[in-house]
Specification:
With about 500 residues, the chain is an alpha/beta fold. It contains 17 helices and 13 strands. Helix content is about 40%, strand content about 10%. It has a 13-stranded parallel sheet with strand order 1-2-3-4-5-6-7-8-9-10-11-12-13. The protein starts with a helix and ends in a 14-residue tail after the last strand.
Length: about 500
């Protein structure tokens, strides 16, 4: 329920121009204007912002609120208001403003949000880059005009330097691909010393060359970056060896995602051995690293060599579809990473044969810390789940369990449900369509296609039955879902 103050703020922002109001009302007015989709009011509020920091997440609230409200025009309005403020400061040196930091980190990506008019991280990155370019261009033009004016007045060869405004730092998460690379690169290079400065907290780059990624990394503020996500860049070991040395200049880098990097070391060669040693050494140069994603890299038998130089234990390790062998899981269970792991993704491995016991031993070692476990598409049947269940029940802090795409029966899933009700922190289980809910039998293809043959009526009956068990046990806080999408990924930084 909305507070009386918020309801009053909604009435105020429904009309322009705004009256003169105390400074301490600006935050709630900003929240009301943003959630009600009033971009012009937001521009007015930013123009008169009385505090040094404007932080979207703190002002607007939970990500769930942001996901349900259109925000593209509102975010653009705030950016344009900051640009207008800086232009005025350049043209009127006596004019000052309080705002020094605009923090728009953590805004939900419209690709995963529900609001039709949301702003994607990619479009937000482009908007910020264009804003930086516009302010830098205006600064250069203003300086040229000032130079000509001084020459006309004094005849001096050079103009006296005009005082520069302190400017605004923009804290943002940036997403760049081949289409937006040029404008972001230029904005980072020209804007680093300009009035509007981009400070990247998380960088996601897709489908770029190693040299392009290096150019971006060299332009970033080294003190602020906490995550680099380089998915879908087809880098291989050679490309990674070019990029990773440039990450050591970021002391706060805690998360590195390298999924779909075209790394395949299943067949050892002298070149791959050198590449693995190089990769391990470069990862060892990242003292703050706590999350590593090597998804879809073919690592068979090489996990020890890759992780051997890390200075501190990982808390999140994603190894989906990595062609791991028993020796890899055995190493992991004996390493200093195991008791520290909060998130583990081993999806896409065949646990129906030799990997099952190594997995059980690994889960034993991680049971005190593990919060998030993904075992989707792992060819598990009832007997395999039954063998793991005693260990799963010892994962006392588990919040998420992913089992989608495995061949499990309704009886096995109901047994899992009843025996994991005792896990107090468990909030979400993503389970597969039971094998007895297919007509006439599940196809032999990959589990992601199983939904095509399900009997919807049988699935609905299973959902109702599971719902009754949850309700009867008083676990309304626990969700069991057969839909692997739309739940919102539990991010490492929220663990």
């Amino acid at each position: 329920m909305d507070s009386l103050l918020f309801l009053c703020a909604r009435r105020v922002v429904a009309h322009r121009p705004l009256p003169v109001l105390p400074a301490d009302l600006h935050p709630v007015l900003f929240q009301a204007a943003f959630l009600d989709g009033r971009p012009l009011v937001l521009r007015d509020l930013v123009a008169a912002w009385p505090f040094p920091v404007l932080n979207f997440q703190r002002l607007v609230g939970r990500r769930e609120l942001l996901q349900d409200h259109p925000c593209k025009l509102c975010v653009q309005a705030v950016i344009l208001a900051v640009v207008a403020q800086l232009r005025r400061q350049l043209e009127e040196p006596g004019h000052d403003a309080s705002l020094r930091v605009l923090d728009i980190t953590g805004l939900p990506d419209s690709a995963s949000g529900r609001a039709p008019d949301g702003m994607s991280v990619w479009s937000g990155t482009v908007a910020l880059a264009k804003a930086c370019a516009e302010v830098s261009k205006h600064q250069r033009e203003f300086q040229r005009r000032g130079s000509k004016w001084h020459k006309g007045r004094s005849g001096a060869a050079t103009a006296a330097a005009a005082p520069q405004p302190p400017g605004v730092d923009v804290h943002a998460d940036l997403f760049v691909n081949g289409t937006s690379y040029g404008i972001l690169r230029d904005a980072l290079r020209t804007g680093s010393a300009g009035p509007l400065r981009l400070k990247c907290r998380e960088l996601q780059a897709e489908e770029l060359s190693a040299s392009a990624i290096v150019a971006l990394l060299e332009s970033l503020d080294p003190s602020f970056l906490r995550r680099v996500d380089l998915r879908f860049n087809n880098l291989g070991l050679a490309g990674l060896s070019v990029i990773l040395p440039h990450l050591s200049r970021f002391p706060e880098l805690r998360s590195l995602k390298l999924q779909y990097s075209n790394v395949d070391v299943r067949r050892p060669t002298p070149e791959s051995a050198i590449g693995i040693r190089c990769l391990a050494g470069q990862l060892g140069m990242l003292p703050s690293l706590r999350e590593l994603n090597l998804g879809s890299s073919r690592l068979s038998g090489n996990l020890r060599q890759i992780l051997c130089d890390l200075q501190a234990p990982l808390e999140s390790l994603e190894l989906a579809f990595c062609s791991l062998v028993p020796a890899d899981l055995a190493f992991l269970s004996q390493s200093f990473h195991a008791p520290a792991l909060k998130r583990l993704d081993l999806s896409g491995h065949d646990f129906s044969q030799g990997l099952l016991e190594p997995l059980r031993l690994l889960l034993e070692e991680t049971s005190a810390s593990l919060l998030h476990l993904d075992l989707m598409e792992c060819r598990m049947a009832d007997s395999h789940l039954d063998a793991l269940l005693p260990t799963l029940r010892r994962c006392s802090r588990l919040r998420f369990l992913g089992l989608y795409g495995n061949s499990l029966s309704t009886a096995a899933l109901k047994d899992l449900l009843q025996k994991t009700l005792e896990l107090p922190d468990l909030r979400l289980v993503v389970y597969p369509f039971p094998v007895d809910c297919y007509k006439p039998e599940p196809p032999a293809a990959s589990g992601w296609d199983l939904g095509r043959a399900v009997d919807e009526e049988l699935v609905a009956l299973v959902d109702v039955e599971f719902g009754r068990v949850l309700e009867g046990s008083g676990r309304s806080d626990l969700v069991w879902s057969s839909n692997p999408y739309g739940h919102g990924e539990l991010d490492f930084f929220s663990l």
